[in-house]
Amino acid sequence: MESAGPSAKKMKLAPPNIHEAAPAPSEATGVKPPTSEIRSQEQPPEAEEDGGEELPDRLSDLPDGVLGEIISLLPTKDAARTQALASRWRHLWRAAPLNLDYRGLPKDEEGVLPGVILSAHEGPVHRLCLPVTLLRYGADVVEGWLRYPALDNLQELEFYLPRRVYSVPMPHVVLSATSSIFRFSSTLRVATISKCHLSDDTVETLRFPQLRKLAILDVKISEVSLHRIIATGCPGLECLLLRTISGAFRLRINSPTLRSIGVRSFIRELIIEDAPSLKRLLHLQMYMEMQISVISAPKLETLGSITDWCSNNSRLVFGSTVIQELRIDNLTTVVGTVKVLAIHMLNFNLDMLIGLMRCFPCLEKLYMKSIRGKKSLAS
Predict the structure, then answer these.
(1) Residues 6 or more apart whose Cβ sits within 8 Å of residue 289
(2) pLDDT at residue 340 in the model
(3) How far is CA 168 from the centre of its chain?
């Protein structure tokens, strides 16, 4: 067989459809066509997959009740936007349970948006979250909002403190026994009370049997009233947060239901007398002096933070065992239930750390921070 010449090596077989389709302009001339022309020659992915038909909207086929629950879980702004999704959704937002959080709303210089939304919404409101700064427009205005029928079954009420409020003096609002807040006593499960004054007469009539979580922030209240809220005013309370409380310097805890306590306040002495359900005890600000005594908390699992700061007047007592400056004085009682411990050290000291762990023999996680030495997290 004779070998092919050099010209034969350059020959290529023509494609079978050479007479059916012309080559693309870029192949024939070497010049690329405009981008728009290339796109027009391409088929959209949808056309290749399902013949150009739109995918079915399965979400909109769900019952109104299910869609309403989905909408209620969204932030206020996003929930309102669901009206633009499809005609099927347009009526749902007005009738769905409302989660009205002021933090998700556009800038409101006049403080009128909550009232506008409440008056326009036809469904129930399950959560109402407002900044305490709205009270500058007048407590009577906010009181008017709280009387809207849509709030009849309110489950969560929060008057929160914006960050800028901490540096701006603001008078405490006096809450009386006739306040509209107390009309939610049979339904409220979560509450945050901020920047107010709770008198003894008001607290004496306070009853929230369904309340499970309570945060008291920058509130004037006496020791007697604070104890009454925990012991009798909220008999089902499970989580308690106290921050910047004035008027109460000593607190005794006697509660069969409390599971978590967080304190960041000027309370100087905290005594856990009888808390059979307590699992978390958190001291949230290190430089505040506090003496904590745990008499009975058989389920306590998480403890922190304990520190060697303010050592002269801060200590932690379990039975007859005293922990001061992160050192154990007379180890007679070990805490076998604590599994998670957080500590702050001014200077890292390994011997001190090992000695402290003798009091917590069942420890599983240790969170540690040293200010002047190395910082670490151990588990």
Answers:
(1) 268, 310, 312, 313, 314
(2) 94
(3) 24
**Domain tally for the chain?**
2
* Burial label, 84 (beta-carbon count in 10 A; 0-12, 13-18, 19+): exposed
Query: Can you spell out the DSSP letters for 323-344?
Result: EETTEEES------S--EEEEE
> Tokens at residue 2, please?
């004779």
Predicted confidence (pLDDT) per residue in 283-298, tens digit = 876 566 788 999 999 9
Residues 371/348, Cβ–Cβ less than 8 Å: no
> pLDDT digit string (tens) for 9-26?
443 444 444 334 444 444
pTM score, two decimals? 0.75
Looking at the domain assignment, is residue 38 inside a domain? no
In a domain, 352, yes or no: no
On whether both 89 and 237 belong to a single domain, the answer is no
Token digits of residue 34: 């405009």
Q: Are residues 237 and 138 in the same domain?
A: yes
Q: Is 208 found in the same domain as 71?
A: no
**C-alpha distances out from residue 169 to 164, 221, 244, 347, Å:** 10, 19, 14, 36
Residue 72: which domain range?
Answer: 61-96
Confidence of residue 303 (pLDDT cuts 50, 70, 90): very high
Confidence of residue 190 (pLDDT cuts 50, 70, 90): very high
Same domain, 117 and 217: yes
Gap between the Cα atoms of 336 and 196, Å rounded: 40
